[in-house]
Amino acid sequence: MRAPIGEFDNARPAPEVLDQLAAPVATAVRGWEGPVPADQLFHVDTDPEKADTAAFVEAYGQELLESSANCVVVAAKQGGVRTLAGCVVLSAARVDVNGAVRRGLGARKVSFAPHETAVGETGMEYGGITPVGLPGDWPLLVDAEVAALPWVLIGSGSRRGKLIVPGKALASLPGAEVVEGLGLRG
């Protein structure tokens, strides 16, 4: 099957490849209740050595940069309480941690979560972390540009493979809030 974006000939509905997804991602797909049917969440098999954005677009096409998004885990602190959250921005942007994220989470201080924390708390591989399957009690900030895209290429929970999902599906994930200006370009 051909993917809705990119030049991937190996796209398959995510419910058909649960064994290729990280456990929390497979669980989320299995229990999917979003605004689009689960069979409109596609998985494409990709080289794990090319999972990082720069290597990925070099190998699979520069045009994917404008429809690819990254999910980063941040740690927010307010009144001595630490909260972990996911932030989804276009791959061509950087997360506005000290502005939009701090305001969106109502935190005094926000920083990127350490590698070990991000991996340990999500159950996903670094470089493949995705908003699909994040812990349900986490806040999830989704940049408005990402939510508006017809199709978004995101991680699959592992470095091997990506998911292609409608932007509106990301905006409807548990704990999701669409935020204008979450991603900064330039």
From TrEMBL:
Pfam families: tRNA_edit (PF04073). Residues 50-171 form the YbaK/aminoacyl-tRNA synthetase-associated domain. InterPro entries: YbaK/aa-tRNA-synt-asso_dom_sf, YbaK/aa-tRNA-synth-assoc-dom. Signal peptide: none annotated. This is YbaK/aminoacyl-tRNA synthetase-associated domain-containing protein. It comes from Streptomyces smyrnaeus.
